[in-house]
């Protein structure tokens, strides 16, 4: 798909998984849209989509590891934004309570309250509605969005088939370090970029509808500028554990940089803090 769109005369390319619930969006010449940016752009233009013209716009939500781009849209539009644990079930209660109309996760899942599941085909139709409404290409829509909100450069690293015991030790050691009283306020620097720790915890979520609590959902470090480092451990089967490292680097002004270059300082800091090999 990427090669075909890159070499041909196409305005949009879309890919789905086998049951159509996950989606990937690319623009002309294979301009890649991250799932976090896709969620934020759709949120910004919801009122251009007929379904929401009819049913109204409620709140937004994202999984905790997903870049916080949609948070900025919600703040500007005066809408509630919920940060929930990984797992689509956490969106359901919010939808049923009428507090959520759009949600997504960094693993290419996007959905709205027309159904209670991810819907990749709906997401592509939403993008086509945005393109029709603006008269702009996908690349120009993103660049316009970044000029207003800034840009969340995002990446994820998966360390698969790891021995569980040393992974548990690493996570416990990192949690102890980042939840120490002196960690908040600490400064980290790399490649000319500096970040000051604003908040650090093992993420816990209290459902605002039924008050149920999901604790120990992943280690989270939030910096003053909105950038974040997230670390999660998943899988305890015979094939080993998976360590997932998420990097969410926010830039207000430098929004047209090369993602790998822009992400490197925070990646290096994440490796320093986590002591990952």
Automatic annotation (TrEMBL):
Signal sequence region: none
Keyword Magnesium applies: yes
InterPro entries registered for this protein in UniProt: A-D-PHexomutase_a/b/a-I/II/III, A-D-PHexomutase_a/b/a-III, A-D-PHexomutase_C_sf, PGM
Gene3D superfamilies: Alpha-D-Glucose-1,6-Bisphosphate, subunit A, domain 3, Alpha-D-phosphohexomutase, C-terminal domain
GO MF annotation, one: phosphoglucomutase activity
Domain Alpha-D-phosphohexomutase alpha/beta/alpha residue range list: 37-149
Keywords assigned by UniProt, alphabetized: Isomerase, Magnesium, Metal-binding
Protein name, UniProt field: Phosphogluconate mutase
């Amino acid at each position: 798909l990427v090669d075909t769109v890159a070499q041909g005369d196409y305005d949009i390319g879309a890919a789905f998984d086998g049951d159509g619930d996950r989606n990937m969006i690319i623009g002309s010449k294979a301009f890649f849209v991250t799932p976090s940016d896709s969620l934020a752009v759709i949120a910004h233009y919801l009122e251009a989509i007929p379904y929401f013209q009819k049913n109204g716009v409620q709140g937004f939500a994202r999984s905790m590891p997903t870049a916080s781009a949609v948070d900025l849209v919600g703040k500007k539009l005066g809408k509630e934004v919920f940060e929930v644990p990984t797992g689509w079930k956490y969106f359901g209660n919010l939808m049923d309570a009428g507090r959520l109309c759009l949600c997504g996760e960094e693993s290419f899942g996007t959905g709205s309250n027309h159904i209670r599941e991810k819907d990749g085909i709906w997401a592509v139709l939403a993008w086509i509605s945005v393109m029709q409404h603006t008269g702009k290409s996908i690349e120009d829509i993103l660049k316009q969005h970044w000029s207003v909100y800034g840009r969340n450069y995002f990446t994820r690293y998966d360390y698969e088939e790891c021995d569980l015991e040393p992974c548990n030790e690493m996570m416990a050691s990192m949690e102890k370090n980042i939840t120490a009283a002196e960690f908040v306020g600490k400064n980290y620097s790399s490649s000319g970029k500096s970040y000051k720790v604003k908040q650090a915890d093992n993420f816990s979520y209290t459902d605002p509808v039924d008050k149920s609590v999901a604790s120990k959902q992943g280690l989270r470090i939030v910096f003053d500028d909105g950038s974040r480092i997230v670390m999660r451990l998943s899988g305890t089967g015979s094939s080993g554990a998976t360590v997932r490292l998420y990097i969410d680097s926010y830039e207000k002004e430098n929004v047209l940089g090369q993602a790998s270059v822009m992400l490197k300082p925070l990646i290096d800091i994440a490796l320093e803090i986590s002591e990952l090999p």
